[in-house]
């Protein structure tokens, strides 16, 4: 029993760190610290019609309206090719972090930024953490693990780089559009990363996947 308990400590530890970081980032960015205000002000200062259109478009990549069907398609393809575990990993990575974010939003109940005009509609849910950022980061990290270099060769690095670039652009879009504080985005990115990291530890220590 002791061995069984120790086996899951890395996962519990990783997810515990995620919760602690969420609390710390929220605590140290309320009231709004200078870096939150500075980055929102900088984003407002560089506005242009082209950037408005670009970030309004790219931000949707972090939405469940896009990620859920894409995950289902990739998961189905993986399952058909004998990689059902990888498909489930991608699905649980996205679904788990989405649920985690919704619970965190209810707990922290932070208001959306109101320093500058918002581009587009103001989301109705709470601001902290950024669900779009957490979801796209979790998706990108899980996909990067699934696209292992030994199976794809050089394509691995280009595909992984593209996925991480997309995640970064979605994160930046939330600040540019003035719908999230930078601290919301930072918390979302760390949550997405640590959720998948803990999940990989869990599956590895359970013997379901190999590193």
Can you describe what's shown?
With 211 residues, this protein is mostly helical. The chain has one domain (2-205): Vanadium-containing Chloroperoxidase, domain 1 (Up-down Bundle), CATH 1.20.144. 74% of the residues lie in helices and 0% in strands. The longest helix has 25 residues, at 84-108. The radius of gyration is 18 Å and the shape is globular. It starts with a helix and ends in a 6-residue tail after the last helix.
Number of strands: 0
Number of domains: 1
Mean pLDDT: 89
Give the overall shape. Answer: globular
Helicity level: over 70%
Gap from first CA to last CA? 24 Å
- CATH topology assignment: Vanadium-containing Chloroperoxidase, domain 1
Class inferred from helices and paired strands: mainly alpha
Largest sheet: none
């Amino acid at each position: 029993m002791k061995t069984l308990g120790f086996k899951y400590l890395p996962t519990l530890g990783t997810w515990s760190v995620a919760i602690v970081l969420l609390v710390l980032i929220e605590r140290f960015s309320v009231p709004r610290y200078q870096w939150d205000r500075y980055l929102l002000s900088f984003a407002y200062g560089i506005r242009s019609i082209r950037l408005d259109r670009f970030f309004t478009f790219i931000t949707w990549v972090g939405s469940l309206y896009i990620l859920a069907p894409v995950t289902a398609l990739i998961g189905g393809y993986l399952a058909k090719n004998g990689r059902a575990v990888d498909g489930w990993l991608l699905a649980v990575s996205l679904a788990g972090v989405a649920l985690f974010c919704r619970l965190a939003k209810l707990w922290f109940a932070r208001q959306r930024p109101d320093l500058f005009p918002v581009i587009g509609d103001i989301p109705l849910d709470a601001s902290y953490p950024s669900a779009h950022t957490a979801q796209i980061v979790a998706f990108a990290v899980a996909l990067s693990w699934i696209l292992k270099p030994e199976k794809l060769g050089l394509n691995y690095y280009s595909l992984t780089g593209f996925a991480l670039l997309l995640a970064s652009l979605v994160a930046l879009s939330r600040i540019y559009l003035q719908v999230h504080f930078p601290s919301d985005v930072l918390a979302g990115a760390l949550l997405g990363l640590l959720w998948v990291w803990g999940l990989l530890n869990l599956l590895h220590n359970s013997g379901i996947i190999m590193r």
